[in-house]
Design a protein that fits this description.
Largest sheet: 5 strands, parallel
Radius of gyration: 15 Å
Bound molecules: shikimate-3-phosphate
Strand content: 5-15%
Distance between the termini: 13 Å
Number of strands: 5
Shape: globular
Helix content: 55-70%
Order of helices and strands: EHEHHHEHEHHEH
């Protein structure tokens, strides 16, 4: 199935850009975090606090397996940590074109400051967390993606146009 899948760090704009891209392409939009919350009847932050991160990561893998069964073409945004599991990267490949929305730590810091919905960013210094996680993740995002779009200083409209040129 040739879905369009958006990956990238928290705050890279996957959901907003994904929604807009889907609307323009006349396709449904889904977000892996929303699917997980709907199926668990719990917020992501509660899943983390009650069952722990690795349980949440298992739910992400399950969600990808469900998406692979879908016969309708979609735009899919996935959680920022999902591509870290090698198994998940295999599923992403099977799902379609993988688009990496990249952003500099400074841009992410601006977009994420004050956010309380993302458990792995809570407590401590936000910039340090972003830099540490990006050091672990950036190369993996690059490896998992077919296309990389730099989002710093770009409007959502521009980012959508850029994606449309490739897919
Ligand atoms: C996470 C990103 C979040 C969500 C969870 C963990 C991560 O999704 O899945 O809070 O590890 O980067 P978004 O990237 O949509 O914020």
């Amino acid at each position: 199935m040739n879905h369009m899948i958006l990956i990238g760090f928290m705050g890279s704009g996957k959901s907003t850009v994904g929604r807009r891209l889907a609307k323009e392409a006349g396709l449904p939009f889904v977000d892996s975090d929303d699917l997980i919350e709907a199926q668990a009847h719990m917020k992501i932050s509660d899943i983390f606090s009650e069952y722990g991160e690795s349980y949440f990561r298992d739910l992400e893998t399950l969600t990808l397996r469900q998406l692979i069964e879908s016969e309708e073409r979609m735009v899919i945004a996935v959680g920022g940590g999902l591509p870290m599991r090698p198994e998940n990267r295999e599923y992403l490949k099977q799902l379609g074109s993988v688009i990496y929305l990249s952003a500099k730590p400074e841009t992410l810091q601006q977009r994420l400051s004050g956010d309380t919905s993302r458990p792995i960013l809570q407590g401590g210094n936000l910039m340090e967390k972003i830099v540490t996680l990006m050091a672990e993740r950036a190369a993996i995002y690059e490896q998992a993606a077919d296309i990389k779009v730099i989002t710093d200083h770009k409007r959502h409209k521009e980012i959508v146009e850029e994606i449309k040129q490739y897919v």
